[in-house]
Design brief:
Shape: globular
Strand content: 25-35%
Radius of gyration: 12 Å
Largest sheet: 3 strands, mixed
Helix content: 25-40%
Length: 80
């Protein structure tokens, strides 16, 4: 799987203002910014991103995905 393919999968299921992916095709690190994260705790946000992958983690198409999740306001503060 390429970074572009993984990005397409995530953004098809989650409206993202920003997404950045790094990885080797199996192990990925993502930074995901979405207004859908408003009012959610970290675990809820991560579950939301994992849900976009469907069964790709179980089938080992994506072996591992680590992530940082932000609301747009949190992301703006992080960038300042």
């Amino acid at each position: 799987m390429t970074a572009d393919q993984l990005q397409d999968i995530i953004t098809a299921g989650l409206a993202c203002e920003h997404i950045a992916l790094e990885g080797d095709g199996r192990h990925w690190y993502a930074t995901v910014v979405s207004a859908e994260f408003e009012g959610q705790r970290t675990l809820q946000r991560q579950r939301r991103v994992y849900a976009t992958l469907g069964n790709r983690l179980q089938t080992d198409e994506v072996h591992a995905l680590s992530m940082k999740t932000f609301t747009p306001a949190e992301w703006a503060a992080q960038q300042a």
